[in-house]
Amino acid sequence: MGDRWHVEVDRSVCIGSAQCVHRAPDGFRLDTARQSHPVEPDLDAGEGLLAAAENCPVEAIAITLAGTGEPVFPPEE
Q1: Do residues 70 and 36 lie in contact, with contact meaning Cβ atoms separated by under 8 Å?
Q2: Per residue in 17-28, is it b (16+ CB within 10 Å) or e — as a string?
Q3: What is the pLDDT of residue 76?
Q4: In angstroms, what CA-CA distances link 70 with 48, 53, 55, 63?
Q5: CA torsion through residues 11, 14, 15, 18, sign
Q6: The model scores a pTM over 0.90
Q7: 8 A C-beta contact, residue 65 and residue 2
Q8: 10 Å Cβ neighbour count for 62?
Q9: Which residues, 6 or more positions from 16, have their beta carbon under 8 angstroms from its beta carbon?
């Protein structure tokens, strides 16, 4: 079994560009207010989720390792 990631979207920052939905359609949905949210808080790690976070135009997506909280994206500096 692979890593699980905890995915959060800062809805106060999200502008509803839907880039996350395009890059990881199984991971994100837009609600009726065009705000993004993960389909589940903990998801299987994958390139699509990482690409969604990396390409969010307002950096509203944070990913950590489920269970440990170790940052995946944005990386610790």
Answers
A1: no
A2: bebbbebbeebb
A3: 78
A4: 19, 16, 20, 9
A5: negative
A6: yes
A7: no
A8: 17
A9: 30, 33, 34, 35, 36
